Amino acid sequence: MPVKTIDVVAALIERNGELLLARRDASSDQAGLWEFPGGKVEAGESQQAALVRELQEEMGITATVEEFVATSELQQPQRLIRLHGWRVSGFSGVIRLQCHSEIRWVSPADVMSFELAPADIPLIDQYLKRFSG
């Protein structure tokens, strides 16, 4: 039986030299872990469009999606999750939490000191190589 592949997008949202981390709430998969916010790509949707929609739904913001950062893969028993990270240079609106318990603005160098969801780790690695310093 082929493993189901799920494409997910994540936003590395920048503001004043910091990145936004969001903590997954108690009801979600990987509860309590920190992640870059985002969500599933729907059929026929571009990654950028999915990210704008997800950030609107999850946080009430309208994002400016810049360039692609990296893709990481997380193999789970029933599915393969492909996480595509995108740099978001700004947004309009005020963040309202729907599926996260808290958010933090963190310097990119400090992101790894948080307990990150496993698929997000390669994204910050690539981000640091390409956009920091």
UniProtKB/TrEMBL annotation:
State its cofactor.
Mg(2+)
CDD domains linked: NUDIX_MutT_NudA_like (cd03425)
Note the InterPro entries from the entry. Answer: MutT-like, Nudix_hydrolase, NUDIX_hydrolase-like_dom_sf, NUDIX_hydrolase_CS, NUDIX_hydrolase_dom
Query: Which controlled-vocabulary keywords does the entry list?
Result: Hydrolase, Magnesium
- Pfam families according to UniProt: NUDIX
Q: Indicate yes or no for the key word Membrane.
A: no
Q: What family does the entry list? A: Belongs to the Nudix hydrolase family.
The name this protein carries in UniProt is Pyrimidine (Deoxy)nucleoside triphosphate diphosphatase
Q: Which organism is it from?
A: Rahnella inusitata
Organism lineage: Bacteria, Pseudomonadati, Pseudomonadota, Gammaproteobacteria, Enterobacterales
